[in-house]
Specification:
11 helices, NAD(P)_OxRdtase_dom_sf, K_chnl_volt-dep_bsu_KCNAB-rel, oxidoreductase, 10 strands, Aldo/keto reductase, alpha/beta, TIM Barrel, two-stranded antiparallel sheet, 335 residues
Length: 335
């Protein structure tokens, strides 16, 4: 396993990070989830990412049980706050002081730990003054319940404003967690340059585009039995956008020859691709089987030649999404 520094902080994380969105507590049974976490640990992964909203808190609980007995100081545990994890009240969501301070305590209970290494704002809250949000995060850090602060799916300008407030409050905002893959590059023109300037790293999710970049979904064919695309409780909705374009699926099949050329599986190629971006500290992988973890970690430390990167761009062509304005649409405006 290779390790990268997160932002300009002193925290190093495994460049392959294990995440449990739409798996633990929902898509896979607990014994399978436990096996995947053991596989991640055996592969040298030390960094684990979750969120309070995943499976309404169950994902945090499963991860906490799976990591029980491990040396806490040897792990980096990340979680997030914004969406309702439980309850339907007006203060059960967003980034107001009440929700943040109550949510960190609930997350720590579910995870079975005294602190998280990184506490992330899961979306931007248009209904709460940013000053209030950052002051609440500062109190979380000063209480010892989190070491660092991050954000997820924030625009470049939102990150800049939060970073300035964090600096004034003498806390460290060191990470951004956006979607990023060969197919989804909306962060490249604005978020990445801003973060490079500020000393903020990307921890990217969906580097394999929900499994589409593995090549197992073929144009004109039904999704394989047992795949994510067939599991309405485990992410079929998230992957559907990619499966409706046979031209795209055909181009992805053409990547197989490029992966073979690099001596990689298609999944490894996809993970290695995001890690070529120097502003990316880690790629988050998920798994429903330990074998998937063992495959994906082989992307750590891989260098892709410029000619190969160019060939990938030429193959995917105009199927790549690059519009930076999309990020702003991912944070809801609550009534």
């Amino acid at each position: 396993m290779e390790f990268r520094r997160l932002g300009r902080s002193g925290l190093k994380i495994s460049e392959i990070t294990y995440g449990n969105w739409i798996t633990h507590g929902s898509q896979v049974e607990e014994d399978a989830a436990q096996a995947c976490v053991r596989g991640a640990l055996d592969a040298g992964i030390t960094t684990f990412d979750t969120a309070d909203v995943y499976a309404a808190g169950r994902a945090e609980e499963v991860l906490g049980r799976a990591l029980a007995g491990q040396r806490r100081e040897s792990l980096e545990i990340f979680t997030k706050v914004f969406w309702p994890a439980s309850g339907t009240g007006p203060n059960d969501r967003g980034l107001g002081r009440k929700h943040i301070l109550e949510s960190i305590d609930a997350s720590l209970r579910r995870l079975g730990t005294d602190y998280v290494d990184l506490y992330q704002a899961h979306r931007f809250d248009h209904g709460t003054p940013l000053e209030e949000t950052m002051e609440a995060f500062a109190d979380v850090v000063r209480s010892g319940k989190a070491l660092y602060i991050g954000v997820s799916e924030w625009t470049a300008e939102q990150i800049r404003q939060a970073h300035e407030l964090a600096r004034d409050l003498r806390i460290s905002l060191i990470s951004s967690q956006p979607e990023y893959s060969m197919l989804w590059r909306v962060i490249e023109s604005q978020v990445v340059p801003t973060c490079e300037e500020l000393g903020v790293s990307q921890i990217v999710w969906s580097p394999i585009a929900q499994g589409v970049l593995t090549g197992k979904y073929r144009p004109g064919q039904a999704p394989p039995a047992g795949s994510r695309a067939t599991d309405e409780a485990g992410g079929a909705g998230a992957i559907r956008r990619w499966l409706e374009d046979d031209d795209l699926l055909g181009r992805i099949q053409q990547l197989r020859a490029l992966a073979d050329q690099a001596g990689l599986t298609m999944a490894q190629l996809a993970v290695a691709w995001v890690l070529q971006n120097s502003n990316v500290a880690a790629a988050i992988i998920g798994a429903s089987r330990p074998e998937q973890v063992a495959e994906n970690v082989q992307a750590a430390g891989v260098t892709l030649e410029p000619e190969l990167m160019k060939a990938i761009d030429e193959t995917l062509g105009d199927k790549v999404e690059r519009d930076p304005a999309i990020t702003a649409t991912r944070s809801p405006v609550f009534d």
